[in-house]
Amino acid sequence: FNAGFNGVTGLAPTTELQSGSTQHNNPVSLNAFDAEVQSIHQAEIAAQVSGRVLQINVVAGQKVRAGETLLNLDSSAAQPQAVASEAQISSANADLTLAQKDYQRQEALFKEDYISQAALDRAQSKLEAAKAHAKAILSLAHSARAQANFYIIKAPFDGVISEVPINQGDMAMPGRVLVTLYDPHHLRVSAAVPSEAVRKDLSIDQVKIDVPTLSGPHQELTPQSLEVFPTVDNSTHTVLLRVNIQQGHAEIKPGQFARLWLPTTISVPNKVIIPITAVVERGEMTGVYVKNEQGEPLLRQVRLGRRWGSDVEVISGLSSTQGLIENVQSLSFGNTK
């Protein structure tokens, strides 16, 4: 469809779409819904064993490669078990070699009719038992080696470290998050949209995305694919929508506020977004200055909501940005009311 799209900060516009005479009674409008930028590949890497943190090799914001060591835990408690496992492997292999040689001798004697079939069967039975014992010991050794590897925390994929919520010397416990990692090249926008606002014929071509906290042409993102969850949340009556965005947006980070624009036939309350420089605080009162018809600045009390970078949402007290003084520092307070 063709629809006007404005990604500037302020009152989110609602654009009516012309889609045939059947839409005359139920006009379709392009409305914005709060969304969040997420990484498609994100991992909270937790400890699988207990151990003190000996070394941390990464910091938040650092790029890492798959398999790179992120931190090391104290493995002194696991070392004796690993050494014992290696010794058991040597002992089992020695027993197996002896059983094989003994069977070969008994087999040669049996061919010359010096021993009975029962004696040969006993030698073969000892050989099979030695093989089974060696296999069991080898399996236990592999388990011990795997246990030892749990003390070395490695990156599961290429990405960026977003958080290291642990310090050197801390005690890591099973389940405790040590490092958070995300892939900056595969991002999506996720939004919980009222179920009545999601049309059955919604397609990726009808979706638009922008990030108000960015400037210039980077505000608008290019959607690639759309995923509409088939269930409705019974407490909020919303449907989760996920839109994968095109790669190459270096300024986009997980957690950023975004707006998901969808064609709807329902009335969706518009949000007023203003720059934080327009806000003035006097004691417990929060307000903004708005020019009246005579061009005089008047202080109007407002209630603020979520903040995104240098912008903030106005929940009540302001219905539009018309006449808003965006920088209160430019005011001459001797002329204000």
Explain this structure to me?
β19 and β20 form a beta hairpin. This protein folds into four domains: 15-40 and 186-264, Efflux pump adaptor protein, beta barrel domain (Elongation Factor Tu (Ef-tu), domain 3, Beta Barrel); 42-70 and 155-182, Beta Barrel (OB fold (Dihydrolipoamide Acetyltransferase, E2P)), CATH 2.40.50.100; 79-149, Helix hairpin bin (Helix Hairpins), CATH 1.10.287; 272-335, conserved putative lor/sdh protein from methanococcus maripaludis s2 fold (Beta Barrel), CATH 2.40.420.20. It has helices at 79-111, 117-149; strands at 15-17, 28-39, 42-46, 51-56, 63-64, 69-73, 152-154, 159-163, 171-172, 177-182, 187-194, 208-210, 220-221, 223-228, 238-245, 257-264, 272-275, 279-282, 285-291, 297-301, 303-308, 311-316. Strands 1, 2, 11, 12, 13, 14, 15 and 16 form an eight-stranded antiparallel sheet that branches. α1 (79-111) packs antiparallel against α2. The protein has 337 residues and is α+β, with helices and mostly antiparallel strands. It is built from two helices and 22 strands. The longest helix has 33 residues, at 79-111. The chain is 20% helix and 34% strand. Mean pLDDT is 83; it is low at 1-25. The chain is elongated and about 125 Å long.
Question: In terms of topology, how is this protein built?
Answer:
Layout: E1 15-17, E2 28-39, E3 42-46, E4 51-56, E5 63-64, E6 69-73, H1 79-111, H2 117-149, E7 152-154, E8 159-163, E9 171-172, E10 177-182, E11 187-194, E12 208-210, E13 220-221, E14 223-228, E15 238-245, E16 257-264, E17 272-275, E18 279-282, E19 285-291, E20 297-301, E21 303-308, E22 311-316
Antiparallel strand pairs: 1-2, 2-11, 2-16, 3-10, 4-6, 4-9, 5-8, 6-7, 8-10, 11-15, 12-13, 12-16, 14-15, 17-22, 18-19, 19-20, 21-22
